[in-house]
User: What shape does this take?
Amino acid sequence: MHSNRLGWLLLAPTMIILFFFGVVPFFYVIWVSFHQWNPFAANPNMVFNWASNYRQVVFDAQLMASLGVTFAFVFFAVVSELILGYLLAQAFMKDFPGKAFFRTIHTLPLIMAPIIVGSIWKLMTTPSIGIIPSLVQSWFGLDLNIGQSALAAFTVTVVMDIWHWTPLVTLSLIAALVSLPPDPFEQAQIDGANKRQIFWHITLPMIAPAVVATVFIRLMDALRTVDEVLMLTGGGPGSATRYIGVHIFKEVFPRTNYGYGSAISVVVLYMTIVICWLLYVGLIAPRNTKKG
Amino acid sequence: MSFAFKLGVSVIALTASAGIALAQDASAFWAEAAKPYEGVTLHGVTESTPPSNYIKDVLAPQFEELTGIRVDIETTSWDQMYDKAIKDMEAGTGIYDMVYIEQDIVYAYLSRDFLTDTTQLLADNAALKSPSYDESQFTTFAESFRGENGHLYGIPVEAFIKPYLYRTDLFNDPEHQAAYKEKTGKDLAPATTHEDYLAIAQYFTEWGQANGGELWGTTSQSHTGHPASWYEYVETVLPTFGVYNWGIDAENNFAATVGSGGRMNSPEAKEAMRYVLQLRDLAPPESVQSTWTETATTMAAGRAAQGMIYGENAAWIASDENQSRVVGNIGVALPPMSEGVLEQAQAGEGYVGYYDGGAFGIPITSKNKEAAMLFLEFIAQDELQADWAVAGSRITNNATYEDPKVQELDGKLGGYFTMLKDQGAIFGGAPAYPFHAQLREALAPIYYQILTGQIEADAGVDQMAQKAEEELTALGYRQ
Assistant: This one.
């Protein structure tokens, strides 16, 4: 009983902070989402409008377009990061000259603020000035113009995200791989399993929790990407990279459409939870059931 | 020693003493007035522009030395500045004691009572009033920051027009003059009409492509995801086609479509849109990623023969060899315009281009209003203005025009300051709407789609006008 009270006491500061900086804002956003509120409208006050904002979400073509490009962005970015991250993690598991140096260099993008990443990529991709369009032109004869081509802008944002966040995946997977016991691998080799069989039947199942946790983190991050893309393309050309985070930012801050912006935020949060739950159900739950 | 010599020395000594005494008086005022606010730190937020950086780097340290009041000026991007300032004032947190108020947002701020009445603040606190401060010292641009009671709600810190800059070395080159004459039958001179501007742009772009590909005929602020491009259309180009106030008739229930009595989708507005697209195609490739800053950089890099450039960048483009490749080669002219626009502007019925700038205001939520007011009086002093004008090509005080340093720079700028003084009145600020950002964010996505070719120009202009009325209805301004 005493230790239980001490535990709550030690947890109290964290819980108080979480309450004020997590729980209160969360319920405030839900409260605002049921209001029409734009401080620069003719009536700047909050007006309760039931679920009108949520109804508007369903019929908002721009929002639906944003969701479409966001899912495409998340899919390509997270899948690429997972594959690349795994390959790099495997590479870093082996010894080679300069390994420590390369591992350090490889994690450098992680310590950069997203806004800086966006600025650097903007400098590198500005048509006729940046180094990337110049190289793409000289190597492949292609005109890479992220201000005009929707495909080019989309691709560059995906590549930028991969460059920025693959190191996180690598580090997570290195931690998972390092902790694997050697016995199952030795036994599999003795039984004559090839590399592909070892990967599918031993490595992947054993690191699955780490993979899923990493995917959850990256999925949530990718769904709310704002700073990098805002700096690189501003959501353009047109609405080609107006990902949901950028869309919410533009709706809430420049347009000061607080009520509707809050409703979109709540819907996106709900969708994120559902996606994560589906992933959990699809990848982890069956494994736990088998164990049970 | 002759009597005349002694007399001369005496006069010089007396003058110097008087000057030192006056300077000491002025210093004494700031030190004395600041005593109650000792230990205070003022926080300001502004856009990172040459004039604002001068406040941060030069004026704030001077004020700190005189008064002991610390001044932290946060210079950031235009979007972030508004984000931070509005959130602070809306939530009433009182983080900022000074916020930058661009001319186009002051009406929104006033409508929300965000700002302190500086005229009243000084009237209520006689000890705060500097002997050197007088509202009449400001140019007429200060009128933009007065409320309905005629009081000043922001102290002007920058004011500039968006003129037509052109490369004098190219325009005065005999070979170009002859070639252009041969091609068009006209003399190569700064354009006065849209047709001439396009013809010059076409000529130099073709010449650039044939000679190494590093010169284009014009700049173009055509970012396909940043509101700067939308602003270029509504505030720089539309007025030159005779469409004012974004084509919205505020007196007629905020009508935007021609059908309702507005002009946002008038034939002139559609012609202006086609003109913008033509210019974009003649501009350097980076133009589709260019905001107001990058067009200046393009001009300074010598990549464009002419362009519409915000005046705050004119000085460094024309005179700073560390940043510009076209020093000494910049001329200034009025924007090209349709027939009758100049006459309408001179009669006060329209304007030929954009007159912008900003002021520092004190949020009503500031906890250090008096100390902030002292700082704003300090930076408004006439004697500080000349160096500031040279650093940021901005003039907010009448006396600044007469300063020798400013007049010398005016020569290098091809008469930009003279144009600001003599013809500033025919340029216009943003319309007095409290819904700038709201309408812009509703319309800009359509505009970006026009720029990328997803929507055809005429249809896009129609869509923008329709959307404007929908948005204004949703905001409650249009009945």
In short: Chain A has a mean pLDDT of 92. Residues 258-291 of chain A form the longest helix (34 residues). Chain A touches chain B through 35 residues (CB under 8 Å).
